Fold this sequence. Notes:
Elements: H1 2-25, H2 34-37, E1 43-47, H3 49-62, H4 73-82, E2 91-95, E3 101-106, H5 113-120, E4 126-131, E5 134-139, E6 144-148, E7 152-157, H6 161-170, H7 178-185, E8 194-198, H8 201-205, E9 208-217, E10 221-230, E11 237-238, E12 242-245, E13 253-260, H9 271-281, H10 287-293, E14 294-317, E15 323-343, H11 347-357, E16 360-363, E17 366-369, E18 376-380, E19 383-387, E20 395-398, E21 401-407, E22 410-419, E23 423-431, H12 433-437
Antiparallel strand pairs: 1-2, 1-8, 2-3, 3-7, 4-5, 5-6, 6-7, 8-9, 9-10, 10-23, 11-13, 12-20, 13-14, 13-21, 14-15, 15-19, 16-17, 18-19, 21-22, 22-23
Amino acid sequence: MFKKITLIIVLAVALAAFLVLRPYIFRKNDPPRLEDRIPDADFLCRAYILDVARETSSMLHYHKVDFRDFFSYEFLLGQSKMYGLNLQQASYLFANEEGDWGALVQVSDSSKIYQGIDRLKKFAFISDTIVSDKKLYKIEQEQIYLYYDRSYMLIYKGNEITKVFNRVVNCKRGDISPGWKAFLKERKFRDEKLVLYSNWEKLKINGVENALFAHDSDSTSFSLKAYARNNKPLNISMKSDGENLISGEFTSKMLNVHIDISKLRKHPEDPIYKWLKKLGNRISFPTEDFLNTWEGDLSFRQGGYQLIKESYIESELDENFNVTEVRKEKEVKVPGFSLLFSVNENGPRFINRLLTKGILTQDENKYRFLFSPPLHLKKIKGYYIFHSGEYTPRRETHGKNNGIWTQRGTKIEFSLDSLSRNEVFGSIYIPVKKLLTKNRFF
């Protein structure tokens, strides 16, 4: 009787264990998701290609870009359906500092993919190659590899095809890389259609934990929203206002800075302090003296040309054919250049330090910064102003931290929008008229 009871208990426990473990015993191994397959890299990108095409369509039509219809939402959607790609879902891109890059795209019908590759063969030489016992296609001229299976397509250019391919093909579900895991968990710009993420080692060296960029566009411009998270509290903060040079029509380069650096002075181990010192070392600039003098306001303008009077010595013959030296003046066209920065009581000592090191030189009543044009120097309240024109440039008061950089006629505007304990928000604005119509940006 005891044996029967024991047997019944054992069978009951075995049945219960079977019922509990059944889903795990007979569970099918779910295939990896697309995000599980992506290799880690210095720069990561998530893109909803069709949505980006829809957002940029008005810009391409406004500027009457050639072949703009090939980048339209309708065309890309039709082509993706024709060749079995699913561009309505997110595509993932990755790139490294060395220049290699790749992308993973969702596949909706793998039976149609080869039609696209076959059509591509009309425009480029494509060969078959074997990597880890699997066949890939290679665009020989560009050294680009193509591979697809039922759920995804890999596009890769670089010298690490074996490493990248094995990662993509042999990963398991949930085997997402650390970089992509951090990126996809990030809440900043979560709803944007094109987002670039980086936790590049060179950023970390400079104290930046990670950085993100998201795109916006309208009919006239392309802009990037930028975000960076510091791995330690920042020792700088934004000031409410300060003196600025007024920008003119011909301004090609501009920079306005208004920050409180009182805490930064006390922390030479700060990555920003180290970065400024590293920059200064290139020309033996006395960075420590500058930070002990500077009060956090700086305004720089460059652009256009100005006529200045420059004296020179000319040898002349008098009536008796004696050579005499005569001082004369001539008008010379020099680049427009103005620099303003705020100083404390250490200002005169800092100027003398620059003169001693030869970074600043004096010729009569004018000065030069290394290879700059001759500059006038004026002290107004707590500011030094260097300027190439005859008259002191006009000024205004605001607290913006922004600037302009001109690249082949295109003025790129950038700004620091907010600054908190560990986070920085900024933006980059690029007018696209010349970029799209003349392709002269690069």
